[in-house]
Amino acid sequence: MSYRDLEIWQLxxxxxxxxxxxxxxxxxxxxxxxxxxxxxxxxxxxxxNIVEGYGRRRYKQDFIRFxxxxxxxxxxxxxxxxxxxxxxxxxxxxxxxxxxxxxEKLGRKITKFIQSVEKMHRxxxxxxxxxxxxxxxxxx
Length: 140
Description:
mainly alpha; de novo design (two linked rop proteins); disordered C terminus
């Protein structure tokens, strides 16, 4: 399994691409280098923190920390989107609504994923006695 198989990463990837395109196509030039740049970075941060957390998944607390960063970046992206809409730099009401709904959905899914990791994941830092290793032919 790869981070690419995670639904939250797939949603974050699509979101970052759509936010990137929106900022290039729908924002006035002066916003492309201010809030436009900020929202592009925060939307990309969602997916990259999921990737980094997945890369550290052997360590439960590291995994959770990076998923929490992804959650915070999701919130930040929503706030940037709303700021652009409130200042009328981005005035596509329908697209604003669609992106907001998708960000809320992604945020909920990240939260549920964090809860699942907290509940089910075992870190290699935990006591060795809590593990039962079963070798299979596919391990060789």
